[in-house]
Amino acid sequence: MLIDTGVFMSLANILYVIVFYILLCLSLLNYDKRNIFSLYLTFTTLLIASLFLGFRSFDSGKDTMGYVKYYAEGFNNFDFEIGYYYISKLLSLFFSPSVYLFTIAFLSLIMLVIASAIWRIKNISLVLIVYIGLLPGLDMLTNTIRNGLALNLSTLLVTLSIHKTNFKFLPFLSVSIHGSTLLTAALRLVTIKRDLYRINLWLLGIAVFALFLFSYINLDVQKLASAYNRGDDIISKLARYIILDKNLLAESVKNYFKIIAVAITLPYIFGIVYSKEIKLDIRLHMLMFIGVSLLLFYSLLSFIEYAFRFMYLSYPILVISAVYCIEKYIRSEIIIIIFYFIIVLLAGVTYSTSTFSSYKLLFLNFAQ
Fold first, then answer.
1. Is pTM, for the whole model, over 0.85?
2. Closest Cα partner for 251 from 309, 314, 315, 302?
3. N or C: less crowded end of the chain, CB within 10 Å?
4. DSSP per residue, 167-189
C-alpha cells in the first residue's frame, strides 16, 4: 500500500510540516498581492521544500535508492532517456548523491516558478504550496523524481508554447527526460479556439463521471492487455500496468487521488460560472484542454492499480491553472477560503501518513 496512517515522525519531519503550514498561512495573508514579500515568500518556499525533500535519506522514497545506486555507478549500466541521462551524468562528475537529489528537486520546483511567472501569477508561493502539499507532488519530488522533473518541464514548455504560438513543438523536448510527457506534447498540437471552454467542461464532466463510474464496475481487460505486454514500447508498458493485479492501494487512498483530481479543477469551473472575462481567456482554455484531456486519460484507466501514476500527468498543469483562476477570476472570498481549507485538509492527509513519517528529511550526506 502506498500510504496509511502513521504515528511517529522525526523532528525534521515535524519541523517541515510546521513550516509548511506557516507558509500556507502567510500565502493566504498575502493573497492577490505582487510585492517584495511575495518574492521572499516564493523563494523561501522553494528553498525550504528543496532542502527538506531533496536532502533526505536514501531509503526515503521507494525509488530513491535505485537512483542513488545508478548515480554512484555513474549511470553506466542503466538506460534512461537521453536528457535525464546526461543531466545525471554531469551531476555525478562533481556532486554527491545527496546534492544530486537536492538538485533534481530544486529544478523541478523552479520550473513551476518560471511557468507561474509567465502566467503572471502574483502568489507563486501558493502554486508551490499546493504542489508539495498533496501526495502527487510529494511523490514526484521524493520517489518518481524523473517523472516529476519531466512533467514540470513539460508544463513550463507548454506554457511557453501557448504564449509563443510559433513554439508548438517545444513540449516534445520534455520527452528526453521521461517518455510519459509524450501525450502532453501531442495534445499541445491540437488547436481549438472557438468555444474551447465548453469543450473543456464536457471533457471534465466525462472525466469525473468515468472516474467514479469505474469505482463500481469491474472491467476484465487483463486478457486483452496480456497480448500486448511483451515489448518495450509505450503500449506494452501500459499493458503491463493494466494486467497488474497486486493490491497496491487501499480504496481510501484511491478515493484520495480522485478527490484531489476534482478539487484542483473546481477553480476553473467556478471561474466560468462567476466570471464573463474568463470565457475570453483563450490561453487558459488551451492549457486546461491539455490538463482536462490528461485527467480524462486517468479517469478511463482508474480501474487499474497503477492509475494514480496517470493522475500525475495532469497534476502540475491543473495546479497552476487552479491558482491562476482563483487569483484572476474568482472574487468571492468565501470560495477562496474554502479552497485554502481544502488544501489544509488534503495536506493534513498527506503529512499524517506512514510513508511521510518513514522519511528522514534534512539527511545530509555529502560523501561521493
1. yes
2. 302
3. C
4. GTTGGGGGGGT-GGGHHHHHHHT
Which of 272, 282, 41, 256 lies closest to 139 in space, CA to CA? 256
Dihedral of alpha carbons 5, 303, 136, 344, sign:
negative
- Please state whether 137 falls in left (phi above 0), alpha (psi between -120 and 50) or beta: alpha
Q: Which residues pair with 353 in a beta bridge?
A: 5
Spatial distance between the Cα atoms of 10 and 218, rounded to a whole number of angstroms: 41
Q: Taking a C-beta distance cutoff of 8 angstroms, is the pair 1, 250 a contact?
A: yes
Q: Please report where in the chains the cell 517545444 appears, as a residue.
A: 170
In whole angstroms, what is the distance from residue 57 CA to residue 112 CA?
A: 25
pLDDT single digits (tens) 30-67? 777 777 888 999 999 999 999 999 999 888 888 888 88
In this predicted model, what pLDDT tens digit does every residue of 186-215 receive, in sequence order? 999 987 777 788 888 898 988 888 887 766
* CB of 348 closer than 8 Å to CB of 340: no
DSSP letters for 70-122:
HHHTTT-S----HHHHHHHHHHHTTS-HHHHHHHHHHHHHHHHHHHHHHTT-S
**C-beta of residue 229 within 8 angstroms of C-beta of residue 239:** yes
